C-alpha cells in the first residue's frame, strides 16, 4: 500500500505538472458555457454526447503520453523489479485519471445541464467507463515507442469503440452496439438526466464491471509482453515498426550528412513505414463526405426542435479549420519527438540551423494542409460557393497548420505537454465556428482574436455573396502571419 500511495502521488504530481488539470479546468468552463447556450430541448442530448466523448475517455489518450514518457525515462523498466509491480502501476493510473474524468464530467453535468436527475448513476457510469478506457488505452499503447505512431493508430480503436454514437443520434441503429463498451457508457450517462429501466442499470454496470476485469488482465499481459520482455512490436491495425534506437541513429546520421535531405527522408520514412498515417492524409476528405451526406439526415431528425439548414454555411466552413488541425498536430508531434530524441539539437548546429528547421516544418505543415483542405471544402457541398471563395478560404485557413505545428513545438516541452495542449485545439479550431453560428454581430467579432475565426467568417460571408468577404480573408492572413512570426522567434530563441 505504501508503494501504491507513492505511485499515486507521483502520478498526480506528473499530471498537474504537465497541465492535465489546468487544461481540463479550462475545458470544463468551456463545456459548461456551451451547454448553457444550448436550448433546453437539446441540452440533455448535448450533455450526454459531450460527457461520453470527452471527459469520460480522457484516460484513453492521456495514458498514451504517460506510458511513452515513462518508457523513455526508464520508469517502466524500474517497475518490473520494484515492490509496486505492474498491478500497482496500473491501479495508480486508473485511479488518478478516472478521478479527473469523474470531477470534470460531474461539473459539466451539474453546472452545464443544471438538473442531473440521477447524479449517482452518472458518477458510477463515468468512473467505471473511465477506468475501462485507461486500461484499454494502456493495451493500445504498450507496443509503441512514439506518440505519433500510437495516436494515429488510436483512430482505429476509436472508430470501433465509438460506433454506438451513431445509434444514439439515430443515424444507424443495431442491437450489435450493445457489445461495444461505449453503449453501456451511453446508457448510464443518460441515466444521470432521465430515469432508466432496471435492466438498463444492470446491463450498464454489469458490462463495465466485467469489462474492467477483462481489460485489467489484458493490460497486465501487455505489460509483461511489451515492457518486461521487451515486446514484439509486430502489427497493430496493419502496421509494422523498426527498433526505435535504429530509427534515431538513422535520423541523426542523415542529419549529419545532409540536414535538409535527411530531415525530408526521415519524415518520408515515418509516413511510408506507418500506414496508419494515411488516415491523416484522407481524414479531412472522409469527414467532408460524412458531413455532406450525414448533415441532411441529422437536420431531418432535429427538424421538430431546430431548423439546421441556416447553419449549413458554418458547418461547411468549419472544414477550413479541420485539415490544418490534423496536420498541425502531426507535424507538431514530429517537432516534439525531434526535441526529445536530440535530433533537433543536431540540426541546430548543422548548416540547416534552427531557422531552416523551422521553415521546413512550417512549410511542410502548410503544403500538407492545403492538399487536404481544398478538396475537402470542395466536396462538402452543403452550400453553393464560388471558386474564388473556396480557394481564398483554403489558402488562408491552412496557415493554421504551421501555426499549430510551431505552437506545439514552442509551448510544449515534451509530448506529454503536447498531448495536453492538443485537448484545447478543438476549442481553438471549432470554437470560432460555434461563435459565428450562435453569437450575433458585432459581439461575435471578439472571437476574431483567434486567427481561425476569419477564414470561417469569410467562407460564410462568401456563400451569401457579402462583398466584405475578401476583407475577412485579409485580416485572417495578417493575423496568422503575426502569430507565426511570434512563434518563429520564440521557437528559434528556445532552440538557441
Explained architecture:
The chain has 496 residues and is an all-alpha fold. It is built from 23 helices and no strands. It has helices at 2-17, 20-37, 40-53, 58-73, 75-79, 85-113, 119-141, 147-161, 164-168, 182-190, 198-228, 244-257, 259-273, 278-302, 312-317, 319-340, 343-348, 353-380, 387-397, 400-411, 415-438, 453-463, 469-495. Helix 2 runs parallel beside helix 21 and helix 18 crosses helix 20 (400-411). It starts with a helix and ends with a helix. 46% of the residues are buried. The model is unreliable at 231-257 (pLDDT under 50).
What are the key terms here?
single chain; 496 residues; mainly alpha; 23 helices; 77% helix
Helices and strands, with pairings:
Blueprint: H1 2-17, H2 20-37, H3 40-53, H4 58-73, H5 75-79, H6 85-113, H7 119-141, H8 147-161, H9 164-168, H10 182-190, H11 198-228, H12 244-257, H13 259-273, H14 278-302, H15 312-317, H16 319-340, H17 343-348, H18 353-380, H19 387-397, H20 400-411, H21 415-438, H22 453-463, H23 469-495
Amino acid at each position: 500500500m505504501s508503494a501504491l500511495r507513492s505511485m499515486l502521488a507521483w502520478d498526480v504530481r506528473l499530471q498537474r505538472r504537465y497541465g492535465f488539470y489546468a487544461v481540463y479546468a479550462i475545458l470544463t468552463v468551456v463545456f459548461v458555457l456551451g451547454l448553457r447556450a444550448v436550448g433546453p430541448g437539446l441540452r440533455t442530448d448535448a450533455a450526454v454526447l459531450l460527457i461520453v466523448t470527452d471527459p469520460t475517455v480522457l484516460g484513453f489518450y492521456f495514458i498514451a503520453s504517460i506510458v511513452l514518457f515513462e518508457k523513455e525515462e526508464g520508469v517502466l523498466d524500474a517497475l518490473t523489479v520494484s515492490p509496486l509491480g505492474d498491478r500497482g502501476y496500473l491501479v495508480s493510473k486508473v485511479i488518478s485519471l478516472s478521478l479527473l474524468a469523474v470531477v470534470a464530467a460531474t461539473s459539466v453535468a451539474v453546472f452545464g445541464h443544471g438538473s442531473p436527475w440521477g447524479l449517482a448513476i452518472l458518477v458510477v457510469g463515468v468512473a467505471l467507463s473511465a477506468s475501462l478506457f485507461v486500461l484499454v488505452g494502456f493495451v493500445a499503447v504498450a507496443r509503441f515507442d512514439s506518440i505519433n505512431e500510437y495516436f494515429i493508430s488510436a483512430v482505429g480503436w476509436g472508430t470501433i469503440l465509438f460506433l454506438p454514437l451513431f445509434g444514439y443520434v439515430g443515424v444507424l441503429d443495431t442491437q450489435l452496439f450493445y457489445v461495444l463498451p461505449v453503449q453501456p457508457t451511453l446508457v448510464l450517462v443518460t441515466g444521470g438526466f432521465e430515469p432508466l429501466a432496471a435492466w438498463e442499470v444492470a446491463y450498464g454496470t454489469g458490462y463495465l464491471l466485467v469489462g474492467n476485469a477483462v481489460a485489467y488482465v489484458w493490460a497486465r499481459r501487455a505489460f509483461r509482453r511489451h515492457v518486461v520482455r521487451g515486446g514484439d512490436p509486430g502489427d497493430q491495425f496493419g502496421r509494422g515498426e523498426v527498433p526505435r534506437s535504429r530509427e534515431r541513429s538513422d535520423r541523426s546520421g542523415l542529419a549529419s550528412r545532409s540536414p535538409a535531405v535527411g530531415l525530408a527522408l526521415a519524415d518520408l520514412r515515418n509516413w511510408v513505414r506507418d500506414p496508419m498515417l494515411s488516415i491523416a492524409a484522407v481524414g479531412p476528405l472522409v469527414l467532408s463526405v460524412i458531413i455532406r451526406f450525414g448533415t441532411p439526415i441529422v437536420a431531418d431528425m432535429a427538424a421538430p426542435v431546430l431548423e439546421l439548414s441556416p447553419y449549413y454555411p458554418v458547418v461547411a466552413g468549419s472544414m477550413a479549420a479541420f485539415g490544418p488541425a490534423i496536420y498541425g498536430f502531426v507535424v507538431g508531434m514530429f517537432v516534439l519527438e525531434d526535441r526529445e530524441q536530440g535530433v533537433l539539437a543536431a540540426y541546430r548546429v548543422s548548416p540547416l540551423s534552427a531557422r531552416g528547421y523551422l521553415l521546413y516544418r512550417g512549410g511542410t505543415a502548410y503544403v500538407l494542409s492545403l492538399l487536404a483542405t481544398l478538396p475537402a471544402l470542395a466536396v462538402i457541398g452543403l452550400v453553393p460557393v464560388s471558386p474564388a471563395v473556396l480557394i481564398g478560404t483554403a489558402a488562408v485557413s491552412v496557415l493554421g497548420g504551421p501555426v499549430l505545428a510551431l505552437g506545439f513545438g514552442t509551448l510544449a516541452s515534451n509530448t506529454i505537454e503536447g498531448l495536453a495542449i492538443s485537448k484545447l485545439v478543438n476549442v481553438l479550431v471549432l470554437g470560432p465556428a460555434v461563435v459565428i453560428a450562435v453569437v450575433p454581430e458585432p459581439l461575435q467579432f471578439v472571437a476574431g482574436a483567434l486567427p481561425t475565426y476569419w477564414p470561417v467568417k469569410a467562407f460564410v460571408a462568401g456563400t451569401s455573396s457579402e462583398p466584405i468577404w475578401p476583407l475577412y480573408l485579409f485580416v485572417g492572413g495578417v493575423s496568422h502571419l503575426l502569430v507565426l512570426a511570434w512563434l518563429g522567434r520564440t521557437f528559434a530563441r528556445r532552440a538557441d
